[in-house]
Amino acid sequence: MKKNVISWVAQVITAAILGMTLYSKFTDAPEVVELFTKLDMGPFGYKLIGALELIACILLFTPVSIWGAILGWGVMAGAIMGHITKLGFEGQMGMMAGMATLAWLLSCVIIYLRKEQVIFIGRMFGMKHK
Amino acid sequence: MASSLHVDLHKVSKFVNASIPIGFLLFLAGGIFVSFYLHFLTVAFLFLMIVNFFYMNVQKEHIILNNFGLMGQARYMIESIGPEMRQYLFANDREERPFNREERSEVYRKAKNIDSASSFGSQENFDSTEIKVRHSMFPTPKEELKPFSVTYGEERGLDSAYTVKRPIMISAMSYGALGVNAVRSLARGAKQAGIPMNTGEGGYPKYHLMEDCDLIFQIGTAKFGVRDTDGRLDDAKLVEIASKPQIKMIEIKFSQGAKPGKGGLLPKEKITDEIAELRGIEKGQDVVSPPFHPECDTVEHTVEFVKRVQEVSKLPTGFKICLGKLSEFESLVEEMKRQNVFPDFITVDGAEGGTGAAPKAFLDGLGLPLTVGLYSIHECLKRHGVRDKMKLNASGKLISPGAQMVAFALGADMVYSARGFMLSLGCIQALQCGNNTCPVGITTHDPSLQKGLDVPSRAIRVANYVKHIEHDLEEVLRATGCKSFSELTTENLYIPADTVLAEHYNSVFNTKLAS
Predict the structure, then answer these.
(1) Res B2: pLDDT
(2) Does one domain contain both B176 and B284?
(3) Are residues B157 and B47 in the same domain?
(4) Which residue of A has its CA nearest to B71?
(5) What's the domain range around B347?
(6) Which of A30, B59, B86, B160 makes an SS bond possible with A126, Cβ 3.0 to 4.6 Å?
(7) B43·A74 Cβ contact <8 A
């Protein structure tokens, strides 16, 4: 029961972080264009990432929330990679990197708490199969 | 033992496990120096790396994953589709259990109203141990055949005596074990075929009643539908159920072939809100009925309980039993004689029976097979001079006319089948009955799996199956030269010496082999 509550709180926060920049990504907002230009990514790139984030957000509110967490984990891992290799942590970037890290960690928590939803994840923690 | 073609899976797995981090580093470098898009693969490899690390270093439950990592998953994946692959591609027509493809196809053909003649000889092994029916040089002309009729309760002269005109009935399957569509298809088919259907121990038979077919109400050891708060029989509830015009007989379940010595079992996956309500149980845990009726702790009380149900219900009442010890049954018969109380029928279930979910030890290891159990009970009743006080129903893998004929010759008055009817509905023997994942929607409550089980068309198949079984049985009966099933005896059978039946009744049958 407690596990369930913690997981739901994590799911809501993760979905909020993932969903925050969706609107600006799909409307080609200047700050998004600028950010992704630094990564050599054009509209295809950030819209693809936006689409993945949108799917993750939706999945986080379904009975297969673990898949949302896995997808979110991946996208956020990419974001962190971007900050380490290209974007840096100055000012605004630092806050974005922090958010990405938070979402990434929360995804880890969700994956752990919801491990029983997917058998190959469950087995990482020694879940028995029928 | 290394040969040049040998694939060492352990080495392959080491290679795979080493290549995952290498892939990660390669794509990481690519992502930094070539294109950020390559980080999609960096992330994927990072994920695989973490999963692999956990498999090999954290979890201790699965040896294969611990030693081989991700590649070990392939074993589980391939193994999980093994049953389907074997059934589709690799198992030959006569090797699957409990029913092989030949046996299933026969039911399917009957249900679909297709001619069941085959060519170029039997697929059976004629050196094998199966019992065969002996035919006569002088078959019975069709017009001399006596119409089939079994009247339950006639021995006691009951007003409510119930006559069945066809030689097969639908054996006990509860709503709970079966889904709604399956219950309704069977009930509607039973109505069309004019045969009764057993409700199983599923409590108030709401869906069975909906189709208005004749019903045999089963009282299980947990007494779902007629229990008081202590789990004993509530007479008032029994009167209420027995007064329904569709309920023709009552069957008290003492034991069941699938799990003799153990009560009914409904896995928690299959307990919906409605089933919990109909049975008066809680959701979220397996429901295990007690192994015996609390009222029936001695032979004396057992016979008294049969009498009580007979008196309260005012209907033909019998019990279902899978024979364990013949001596116990013998003392039960003696007690019946002492109290002058006889059940109107006894259903003998062979240990090979098995629609119910049951622990494997019970499925495989307990109870007498039908041929031995049925013949023992038949002979025991004859020895005590009370065989004519009751009818004998036989059940346990009796899905084909051949096996049913053997049951008639061993003393049965009527044949009961459950799985035969499931097959007629379209069961593909996926063996998922206890998991709520039946792919053809018969033993599941999942609406998306029940969707394909169309009640009107499946009911017709049930009725077709009955029609063809009856037709085949009559043909075989005529071939034996008998005019009715009650004339059949073991004289009409060829019982090879190494059948369980012959071994059990060594002195009786081995001398007859040459005859």
Answers:
(1) 55
(2) yes
(3) no
(4) A120
(5) 132-138+153-494
(6) B59
(7) yes
